[in-house]
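Fold Annotation — chain and its backbone

Encoding — discrete vocabulary of local shapes
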Amino acid sequence: MCCESKRRFLLLYATQKGQAKAIAEEIWQQAGAHGLEADMHCMSEMDKYNLETEKDPVVIVISTTGTGDPPDTARKFVKKIQDKTLPPDHFAHLQYGLLGLGDSEYMFFCNGGRTVDRRLQELGAQHFYDTGLADDCVGLELVVDPWIDGLWLALKEALQLQKEKEGMNNDVDAVSSPVSTAPHAVHELKLRSEVQNSKLEDEGTGASDILSQKLDDINLVAPARDIEPSLVHSVPPVSQSALNIPALPPEYIEVEFQDTQGENPHLSSLISEGTTFEVPVTKAVQLTREDAIKTALLLELDTADTAFEYQPGDAFCVICPNNVSEVEELLHVLGLSEKGDDFVCVKVKQGTKKKGASRPQHIPERSTLKFILMWCLEIRAIPKKAFLRALVECTGDAGEKRRLQELCSRQGASDYTRFIRDSSVCLLDLLHAFPSCKPSLSLLIEHLPKLQARSYSVSSSNLYQPGRVRFVFNVVEFPAGPSRPVPRKGVCTGWLAELVAPLLHPSKNSLDTRGESSSTEKISIFPRPNNAFHLPADPSVPFIMVGPGTGISPFIGFLQHRQKLREQHTDWEFGETWLFFGCRHQDRDYLFKQLQCFLENGTLTHLKVCFSRDSSTAEVAPPKYVQDLLRLCAKEVARVLLKERGYFYVCGDKKHMADDVSDAIVDIISMEMEADKLEAMKILAKLREAKQYLQDVWS
């Protein structure tokens, strides 16, 4: 129940990886300091709130997942409000403010939030506060922090307006709100220099969490003018500023070590997305030469004895552990090296001030300590500011404490972005940089997110190779740097590479199934179907595939599938197929030279390749990138895409390729249709909407 002395608002969140929930919890914590009470619920808990009868203002925090979809926890809600039988005034009584989270690296930025926002507007709901769209590509806090700052005044005005309307008990139009509530006037919040720094208050003490400390009070030596700031050192003005820091998150987890023994939970219990399958790795091939810049591996899994199903173009997820050396190192830093195999019981701390506190779903109630650190927590996660704030309280050295305060403060926002976010600093890096910081295990469980399964595109066809699944990946490398003392490999790709090392056949570069080695190594996977990235249902429809590097992976499955269909249905009409592939060096990382076989048997009609780092003695320099190849084939691309209504598939890196390909298509449309660039962009947008232009990209 909400306190009668404080004015209530409804706070809903929909999260996929926990960020929206963390932001909602921050709003909930700050509300008390502003004389307000947030009635907070996950959007999926539809039995605990009712928007049809809600009279108080509603605040919504919602993320985006997949290719612009609302998070899983919002699916029922979205399905309900998208009921086409609802009248246009269904939510005419509702006032709301919405904060959407997304990543502009992806095409449908903040589409989860936009979808809910647009539909609420269509059903008559009104904004009491401008919509905020936060971009994880540049830092969510750049929009989130000022959006929360401005929320309190808007809420108070909305509540005051509501009170006045209820008191007058007559025409609601007699009162006009100072905040824009036009049904279609959704203004995206932008960070402005004049945004006022509000003082965030710690709910536990009621005292303003603003720090005003002199350097000599904390034994810091003023840096010389020529010293650059770093993860552990600041310079003026940050080093001399009073700091606005977040409220201290309430503790809510308790960990008890137990003497009893037992078994750890099965990995399938950690996954809520569906059925998991434990399958053996039957083959591993290194597709790149040893001197290639990146190491690409092809793995084959045996799914014959399982119910695992897929179509070419689908993806699946691999359940992977953290690096064992990093877990051992973390145990050592925490002083728990001798207790890694001890069983612990994780439960909610009695008397916690955290509203609705519960044990995180990804943390088993009982398991070994090492199991939690290996399989449950993303120890590589970039620490959020709330985590840094909590780490301040675990830090003994005054100088280190001050620097952590700076990094989580408003004044240190640019330092946080530069030295934490952009440097991909993780917990271990912080503990090395700030050796007097000694967090408890319970704090890690409270603040580290769930260790996510990693997604990979299928690179095979079940029609071509029944009972087998193949996938291709680069082994991700993170070099050492100022904030990262040692180089690291990707969590999953590094683990897989180590797992299959005995199976590897360097540079075999083969698509056939000969040379398999027996293997007892198994991995756990679960399907992640792609609703759109599939072959055309009509085989006579032509299509174009663009996949440089490992982006070629799903197209191998496309071509294998098409080859089998051609063999089985000789009377069918098949449309032409184009493949644009690129890599750095023809002799080092041309992943699938057997593409020539698809050309020779007619499965692939046109193959265009380019090599960006190979030197050439030709008078006219050959094209370096796939977008260059596309421009050279402009008339054919336009014919397939526009005149023959073919499909266009792009797979690979978003930042350095997919956007350039999109720009090339806009140029081609503009040139071939003699249209201006704006009109060409509209045509491309229609192709996307019609699911003719499809992307499977990553950042």
Remarks:
- Residues 543-697 form a domain with the Rossmann fold fold (CATH 3.40.50.80).
- Residues 382 and 424 are 6 Å apart (CA to CA).
- Confidence is low (pLDDT under 50) at residues 170-208, 212-225, 506-517.
